[in-house]
From TrEMBL:
Enzyme class per UniProt: transferase
One Pfam assignment: Ketoacyl-synt_C
Protein name: 3-oxoacyl-[acyl-carrier-protein] synthase 2
Keywords per UniProt: Acyltransferase, Fatty acid biosynthesis, Fatty acid metabolism, Lipid biosynthesis, Lipid metabolism, Transferase
UniProt key word Cell membrane: no
Length: 415
């Protein structure tokens, strides 16, 4: 029989807060983290807004030498992981390091490092490129550096599946614990791609909102006037444990990871499969894995990117899976406040979903002002809602047709 997996610690760096209480308070109060780009001069770009992490100081977590050898996305992952371990009350010197693993992904990796070193190559020649260029840039290095800085020697890997990365990482990590290969996994996603090249690429494919004069209203999932996503950055890290291990050390349990499903669209580089059929299959597999009926689910933290096709097709996918119950459950997109954190989205949104279950508060979809006939579900518009739900899903849908869903349950204390 597979082991039950529970969440005991949360660490977050986000556009709406660099610690867990601030993050959660701003989410349930509907505060947007979107504003003008400050990390580079975006004046020549069609999109000049982003959801940036503000006032991040890596030296709070790392010495200066360590920090210099990490891209921003790795700094985020290490910092959020240390916060998550502290929140869980898990002390590595009391654990068997072979039984603690790391599964942290990034959709893009160290793009800022790549851009900086490429500029050196062009302007000063190959001898001036840093010997740390490759280990700073490669997307698996978030997991690698978290393993190094924490001493975790168990299973270590990194999902790289675009915007589904964080959810794949959590789901895969839960399976590692279920099959008995680890007692604890440090899992989630991280991203830091508010850079000139990333903006140029996403602007070129017309994916991002151009509501530059109203940045706080630019991310508006499921709203008829949506015009694209808003790029965000940050990290969301969860401490997963077997229930047996968590109970043995007296850990507080936040929620349970009950199920995991994934699928591939086999359709298009960037567009979701028609009617969201790939997303529907991922949700069905998560429900089946969790042993849940559709009526058991009271909340879905949607992928909800604020793009035309995603919001319409994800709505259709929810109706396909849940039938009439789709109109009775609550759906919200926290991307309306955080922007789209790409590879970190699933990690941050899993944290929001776990807290919604524990606290009995569903975060809202802000900027929902113009109902769209194609998006006709209950999106928890504009204000948080106090309601206890026993089970929830968190969806992540990525470029390349990668779909991932995790099913979380409120922990009831039973064996």
């Amino acid at each position: 029989m597979s082991k039950r997996v529970v969440i005991t610690g949360l660490g977050v760096l986000s556009p709406v807060g660099n610690d867990l209480p601030t993050f959660w308070n701003n989410l349930i109060n509907g505060k947007s983290g979107v504003g003008p780009v400050t990390q580079f001069d975006a004046s020549d770009y069609p999109t000049r807004i982003a959801a940036e992490v503000k006032d991040f100081d890596p030296h709070k977590y790392l010495d200066r030498r360590e920090a210099r050898r990490m891209d921003r996305f790795v700094q985020f992952a290490v910092s959020a992981s240390k916060d998550a371990l502290k929140h869980a009350g898990l002390e590595m010197d009391r654990e068997d390091p072979d039984r603690v693993g790391v599964y942290i992904g990034s959709g893009i990796g160290g793009l800022k490092t790549w851009e900086d070193e490429h500029k050196k190559l062009l302007e000063k020649g190959p001898r001036r490129v840093s010997p740390f260029f490759i280990p700073m840039m490669i997307a698996n290095m978030a997991a690698g550096q978290v393993s190094i800085t924490t001493g975790a020697k168990g299973p270590s890997s990194a999902a790289i599946s675009a915007c589904a990365t964080g959810t794949h990482s959590i789901g895969d990590a839960a399976k590692i614990i279920q099959r008995g290969d680890a007692d604890v996994m440090i899992a989630g996603g991280t991203e830091a791609t508010i850079t000139p090249m990333a903006f140029a690429g996403f602007c070129a494919n017309q994916a991002m909102s151009r509501r530059n004069d109203e940045p706080e209203k630019a991310s508006r999932p499921f709203d008829r006037e949506r015009d694209g996503f808003v790029m965000g950055e940050g990290a969301g890290i969860l401490i997963l444990e077997s229930l047996e291990h968590a109970r043995a050390r007296g850990a507080e349990i936040i929620a349970e990871v009950a199920g995991y499903g994934m699928s591939g669209d086999a359709h298009h580089l960037t567009a979701p499969a028609p009617e969201g059929e790939g997303a529907a299959r991922a949700m069905k597999r998560a429900l089946n894995d969790a042993g849940l009926n559709s009526e058991d689910v009271g909340y879905i933290n949607a992928h909800g990117t604020s793009t035309d096709f995603n919001d319409k097709f994800e709505t259709m996918a929810i109706k396909t899976v849940f039938g009439d119950h789709a109109y009775k459950l609550a759906v919200s997109s926290t991307k309306s406040m955080t922007g789209h954190l790409l590879g970190a989205a699933g990690g941050v949104e899993a944290i929001a979903t776990a807290l919604a279950l524990k606290e009995g508060i569903l975060p809202p979809t802000i900027n929902y002002e113009h109902p769209d006939p194609d998006c006709d579900l209950d999106y928890v518009p504009n204000e948080a809602r106090r309601v206890k739900v026993s089970a929830a899903l968190s969806n992540s849908l990525g470029f390349g047709g990668h779909n991932a869903t995790i099913a979380l349950k409120a922990f009831d204390g039973t064996e």
